[in-house]
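Model: You mentioned two targets. I'll fold them one after the other.
Researcher: Yes, keep them separate.
Model: Target one:
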Amino acid sequence: MSQDIENVIIVGSGPAGYTAALYTARADLRPLVIEGFLWGGLLQQTTDVENYPGFPEGIMGPELMPRFREQAERFGARYITDEVTRVELAAEDGGIHRVWVGNDEYRARAVVLAMGAEPRKLGVPGEEELAARGVSYCATCDAAFYRERRVIVVGGGDSAMEEAIFLSKFASTVTIVHRRDEFRASAIMLQRAREIDNIEFLTPYAPVRFEAGDDGALGKAILRHSETGEEKELEIDGVFVGIGHQPTSRIVEGQVPLDEDGYVQVIGRSTKTDVPGVFGAGDLVDHTYRQAITAAGSGCQAALDAEWYLRDTPASPEAHWTTPDELEAEAERAAEAAP
């Protein structure tokens, strides 16, 4: 007989999901982590991580996230590297939650939602049509395709500065386009960008459309001055959109409370949602800080909240799963009964 009701399923990876996996695994809850194809979250697409404690020289995002993953696995976390397609969350205390990966159904007494966030899009003509043909959201992923070419980065925060700095190693020119003269980026990131010779700044402008060239790939960006309305045409080979992210909460829409921006709402300083046994962590719930360390911290909180919920909430009769000791005893009984 195999286990068919999990103690806890963690949906998503990244610092929140993997920290929740680590803590629930160390609590002997044998978590099942459905981590997605792009496991590791946004940090997997980041270059230098200089502000995570314990790494005084900094560490690359794609090096840090496997460490998170391996540490949780060491204590018994299990992984499905695939996407959750839908969920059905039980409304009653002690109920069984259902999670689907394609046609495969998984059930659990508790669920930690840690799907994180995804890049926010501009929503201008040509953006969707030219995606992967000049329009990108990840310099780490695509910068090498733009060696000695002209690119722009849209945005004014730390994400945009980081994209521009990384791109400057490859592109001939990098133009940061921002709709305001002031930037949201931290002083140190802005200073770094300004000190690089092939990075330029163009403000206050915003893209209004992208157009293809003769080869069908991105050929130009049409920008509009935010104050005068004057339009400017730039011939470019690539655009990297760095205007922030939005929570990846579509699969739970209508099942847990979301705020007007789509973030999962939690109760007070806990990670509890209004649905018993369902917890939210990381960028999925965080409007404000959105840092790797705060995501990891909320993953720890969600794991502890889930552990305490399982400890204090009687299981539904259907929630029994066969433990390894029970499996061994059952095998011994079968062996004794055999002729």
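Model: Target two:
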Amino acid sequence: MTDAPVSKPLLATLKGAKLPVPPVWLMRQAGRYLPEYRALRAEKGGFLALATDPESAAEVTLQPIRRFGFDGAILFSDILMIPWALGQDLSFGVGEGPRLEPALVDHALTGLKTAPERLEPVYATVARVAASLAPETTFLGFAGSPWTVATYMVAGHGSRDQGETRRFAYGDEAAFGMIIDAIAEMTIEYLSRQISAGVDAVQLFDSWSGSLSPAQFERWVIAPTAQIVAALHDRHPDTPVIGFPKGAGGKLPAYARETGVDALGLDETVDPFWAAASLPRALPVQGNLDPLVLIAGGAAQDAAAARILEAFADRPHIFNLGHGILQDTPIAHVEQLLAFVRRP
């Protein structure tokens, strides 16, 4: 474990450094728990308007860095930018979640007209943030993984068990494969453009990977993720890729071995001691505090954080949540967490 100072602690950890104090960032750290975010979103009038205005999206990305001094800034955007660029209409209804039209459960992918220009504001946001970040802060770009993105494209909305998409994949594997391939192809270009515009590393969010059987997990999660990772490594060999297959559980070792990701994000259901023993020894891991314990705060939060730090003391580790920070998280509890993780 090195004691030498590093210019970007989070990036160094992604590349295999074991640091005395793990770097910290939190998924969804730029979001609704911050009053400054809520004020800006109200001013812009909606999520999509905010996310496609580079000046505003850059401001949201930087807000938690100014307030907390996280080691990483995560691009403010959404995983559904890819379906939007593939030709579906995207909307965010008040209290309803995102909607994509037409839903591909009853509409052919070939009937959509791709619109890659819809992604241009994201690249402009990246350039703005990259020019504003302190040199020690790692800038993270991201995209949704093909399976998770496809669940929204097929159903037209989110669901509890992704049943509609799973039935579609079983019933017409060729058609579903075309959707996965289209997502993967555009995601490679999307993340490559983010890297060229200034991000230091990228994360693939597979929020719904836990809903699949082992065989389907291999086909719809591991295979397309490996395709994306290989292409990015070929184009940008020095840029780490973090995989986050939420809910993968016992399938995590296979994901780590077969996808080629440079680091693995763990959700809150994963026992950190099991992960430390089961995953490739040199693989950097990220996680995995329960977002709900961050709401509880106090001694419970400190105990949970201490257990994670103990489990990952002997490998490269980035401290994070097991999923996104929740809207009703007290700011004081985030401050408590940072003080605890960074204590001497």
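Researcher: Noted. Anything on target two?
Model: DSSP finds 15 helices and nine strands in the chain.
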